[in-house]
Amino acid sequence: MSAEAADNSAVFYEQLENLEDEFEEVELELLRQQAKLTKDLYAKRAKVIAQIPSFWPLVFEQAPPDIDEYVQPTDSAVLLSSLVDLSVERFELPDGDPRSIAIKFEFSENEYFENKVLEKKFWWRRNKDGWAGLVSEPVKINWKPGKDLTSGLLDLVYQVWEDDKAGKGEDTEAKKKLKEQMESTGLDGVSFFAWFGFRGLSISEEENQAAVKEEQEKRQARKEGKPVDDDEDDDEDDDDEDEYEMEIFPTADDLAVCIAEDLWPGAIKYFLTAQELDGQSDISFESDEEMDEDEAAAQPSKKRKA
Amino acid sequence: MSAEAADNSAVFYEQLENLEDEFEEVELELLRQQAKLTKDLYAKRAKVIAQIPSFWPLVFEQAPPDIDEYVQPTDSAVLLSSLVDLSVERFELPDGDPRSIAIKFEFSENEYFENKVLEKKFWWRRNKDGWAGLVSEPVKINWKPGKDLTSGLLDLVYQVWEDDKAGKGEDTEAKKKLKEQMESTGLDGVSFFAWFGFRGLSISEEENQAAVKEEQEKRQARKEGKPVDDDEDDDEDDDDEDEYEMEIFPTADDLAVCIAEDLWPGAIKYFLTAQELDGQSDISFESDEEMDEDEAAAQPSKKRKA
């Protein structure tokens, strides 16, 4: 490639980056608009749903493959027997990032855990290396004796997180145990409830704010055609000290987005599909009483309706 | 279930349907907003892209699995060697349905077909049975001798379509041949270019307009709490005379949506990922000359970057 061609490419590259910045702004604006336009509708929907027994369990029964693949038969039984409400909130709106999401599960009394509410928050954050995405904190589940669906993994993750917050260093008991257990059993077929253990990159609020400010300045400079030092980011690719290696549900951020952008807005559609497939008429909703746990666990793998 | 509970369920069902109608209105409004907010950006992007050799081939190289799974090695070679532009338009805007999409491929001279432009349009249409979705028309590809990537399937589909338009009935030569070929070879591993043959349900413009009008009246009635005759639709489930059975690319509508909502808006991201993975620095874009067809066809299965 000639020097001239290379020069041109550098210019195109800057232009592409500028465009990506502008597209991202539009995307955020559309997310804000969406939140505004749907707010009352979701509130109305929640009121209707609250009167329909097994609405959310039936929605999960018809969940798309990207969600369903993580729901093990026992998880499915728990959700079917005791999930009473689900809600998704873009909790940093109106002023913060619309990509931050909180997902709240509400449960009735069940034989697996004491919690009535399990809420997991994902913050959209940026770090000093230029990475941006969702980070979270482990949520503790109070398992009933012998009923831990994650075989202790979630408790260990929570303990490690507490140890980290207390600055206990790398060699804690919980870390060793977690590592051992992850190495010996692997994560194949891990419970959906391990999702509550996800942390993602460790980014403090200060680091995020500094990184967002730096990024804004960089974008402004690029827009004005000033030279931008982008290489800094690339050179630090090997600097992954922030990377949290002991993730028991590494794709939890993707799953959260899928819940927020597919299951949550499409809930009525999934529910009606479940009704149809159960061969019931419009006017006979399946009630709690009609499905016990064994039945639920024995349900065949769920398919998204074409 | 008691009679009272059943009555309540009927009420909830109406409410859910009302909500779905309202959510759909919001979705359409957001699609219109999106089109408005991104129009100039896409025009700007097209200008930058036009100066970058192999932009679209590299985007396809990094296409997400939902698209990539349909691109066979030979298709990939064709795209890599001769795809010069791609564009997506919501062509019924501003007045029509924002879900109708036109996808236009532009090619340089290549050894497979004569066409410089292949454009496929998908119309969002509703039929009298209450079905709504994307329908299309087959696009003819002028294959060079011995180079038909669909082994004659696309030509047959096109001929059947012409026969249908001419009212030639069910027993045409082309129909028999198409049926035979589909039965004998199946559609596993069919070329991406078979996508251009998709028809979907046969819905005339008159039927669509009548169905849209009927649906609007139904929605209005439901909103006002008047009785709505929804059963009519359900009873006609067996009336599938409109179903076109000889589809050589049955999921073409899903693929079109995936191109329009993922590949098209994410093109810069996919291009930059391709650049990175090719281990090239920011300023040395891969040019046409650097990749020949054999290399292209030999590329390993592409993964979406995490």
Structural account:
Two copies of one chain form a homodimer. By secondary structure, chain A is of the alpha+beta class. Chain A has one domain (3-298): Arylsulfatase, C-terminal domain (2-Layer Sandwich), CATH 3.30.1120. The first copy, chain A, contains eleven helices and four strands, in the order H-H-H-H-E-E-E-E-H-H-H-H-H-H-H. Chain A has helices at 3-49, 55-61, 65-68, 73-82, 153-165, 173-185, 205-223, 231-235, 252-263, 267-277, 293-298; strands spanning 83-89, 101-107, 117-126, 132-136. The first copy, chain A, has a four-stranded antiparallel sheet with strand order 1-2-3-4, with helices on both faces. In chain A, strand 3 (117-126) and strand 4 (132-136) form a beta hairpin. In chain A, helix 2 packs antiparallel against helix 4, helix 2 (55-61) packs across helix 10 (267-277) and helix 5 packs antiparallel against helix 6. The longest helix of chain A has 47 residues, at 3-49. The radius of gyration of chain A is 23 Å and the shape is globular. The first copy, chain A, starts with a helix and ends in an 8-residue tail after the last helix. Mean pLDDT of chain A is 86; it is low at 232-239 and 281-306. Chain A binds chain B through residues 1, 5-10, 12-13, 15-16, 19-20, 22-23, 26, 29-30, 33-34, 37-38, 41, 44-45, 48, 51-52, 230, 265, 268-269, 271-272, 282-285, 287, and chain B through 1, 5-10, 12-13, 15-16, 19-20, 22-23, 26, 29-30, 33-34, 37-38, 41, 44-45, 48, 51-52, 230, 265, 268-269, 271-272, 282-285, 287. Chains A, B: Keywords: Coiled coil. Chains A, B: It holds the Pfam family NAP. Chains A, B: Residues 9-36 form a coiled coil.
